[in-house]
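Deviation from plan, reported transparently: beta-D-glucopyranose complex.
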Amino acid sequence: MKSNKSLIFILGALGGLLYGYDNGVISGALLFIHDDIPLNSFTEGLVVASMLVGAIIGSGGSGPLSDKIGRRRLVLIIAIIYIVGSLLLALAPNMPVLVMGRLIIGLAVGGSMATVPVYLSEMAPTEYRGSLGSLNQLMITIGILAAYLVNYAFADIEGWRWMLGLAIVPSIILLVGIAFMPESPRWLLEHRSEKAARDVMKITFNNDEEINTEIKEMKEIAAISESTWSILKSPWLRPTLIIGCIFALFQQIVGINAIIFYAPTIFSKAGLGEATSILGTVGIGTINVLVTIVAVFIADKVDRKKLLVVGNIGMVLSLLVMAILIWTIGIESSAGIIIACLSLFIVFFGMTWGPILWVMLPEMFPMRARGAATGLATLVLNFGTLLVAQLFPVLNSALSTEWVFLIFAFIGVLAMIFVIRYLPETRGRSLEEIEYDLREKTTGVDPAKI
Ligand code: BGC
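Because the crystal trials were delayed, the predicted structure below was used instead.
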């Protein structure tokens, strides 16, 4: 791939990095915020949850906006919001400003979660869509790892302001980068001109023939003149919308963020010291990045549904083995087993459910409502994150750890059944073919004849 082509995709995915960073950084920062700003358990929960509440609002609101003003312009706004939020957090004098900063960052997080996958998906030629879409996940995992490392580096000086404020660096790179990036050709064809769309496709597609085929398909779809809202509300899209939302919810409630957010807590419950727990967490973050690199290479070679099912089997087995062993030998002697099984869980999630959800969400939805529908599914996903983030500590202290893992294993089985029964396969088909089929299947009418 030409280098400027790769740069477009890498910069396009930077929003993912910020999402990962802001997700990963708070656990470390919280340890030290107390020293400067008094927090009780309620206000501490507020600081954690306010970002997720912001993300719920951001993902719901940004979808329709990205259909209206364009993906690129929205990412530009998001980058500015990231900068403002990071500054507020770094300088916060008291709890309300801290909560406000987290809420603002949340808006940007939700916005980029909903917009970046759509942008990447629409920029990519069909045969690379899986790989290029997975770059978003790669950036998320790099962001999480970067946060763990920054937490580690600043722990000695109790530098929570640095931890939260450093998010400004990738925000500025995103702002500068997006200023040089083209708008998505599919959005351009809809809202500007065919020429504008073609000019962009010349950068990211391989040859004129590919461009002509895509443009022809895009025009056929564009000719079906419905507004975003009428598509979103239409009965033919409803099943797909519901499936997309449940898919997004499952990605969270299989338990990934119980590990990403609470690994140190789990490790210390298993008797590891503070330093070893942090190191274990950095290890988990590193594995997450490495397997996602593998995912980028396999995403277009194996059917998406197959990957998801393999992922479920692996995650469920890791959880079951861990629960059974903790149960038989006791949690205090299980540190090694827990590290191994959590790592295996991450391997399976990182190669399958992590990237594939973000690849598939925009693929599943029709052009006119892609931003809004992906936004809605992302909103549900953020509810899922909030649920796990709030419930895990409660469950973990009320039940023994093995029972919590068993609950996640059970949800993993349900997720697998859901994938097999309800998800469409999207690999190797253009976005327009997928939409055409969806319309035909759900309405029983050939869209060309409408
Ligand atoms: C999920 C995040 C999660 C991350 C872990 C993403 O796909 O949406 O919630 O923290 O993967 O790598």
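The chain is about 80% helix and 0% strand. We consider this an acceptable substitute for the interim report.
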